[in-house]
Write a structure and sequence with these properties.
It is built from no helices and six strands. By secondary structure, it is mostly beta strands. The strands form two sheets. A four-stranded antiparallel β-sheet has the order 3-2-5-6, with no helix packed on it. The model has no long low-confidence stretch (mean pLDDT 94).
Length: 69
């Protein structure tokens, strides 16, 4: 989940622990407010730790997540 203070362009990307891009979950203009995104992991990637990055014109935010299949 993420919250935007105003409408803006975003890119939400998932990376492996080695920094390889796994998936772009969202990209484009999003309205102000709270947004919820579900990560439908490709079957080829294993359970484990992954990183996400939310890029906006106002700055970037990163975090960690655990994928359990």
């Amino acid at each position: 989940e993420y919250t935007l203070p105003e409408e803006m362009e975003i890119t939400l990307t998932v990376y492996s622990a080695l920094g390889e891009q796994i998936s772009v979950l969202e990209s484009g203009s999003r309205r102000a407010g709270q947004h919820k995104v579900e990560f439908a992991a490709p079957t080829a990637i294993p359970s484990g730790g992954y990183f996400y990055e939310l890029k906006t014109p106002k700055g970037n935010a990163q975090g960690r997540m655990l994928l359990a299949k």
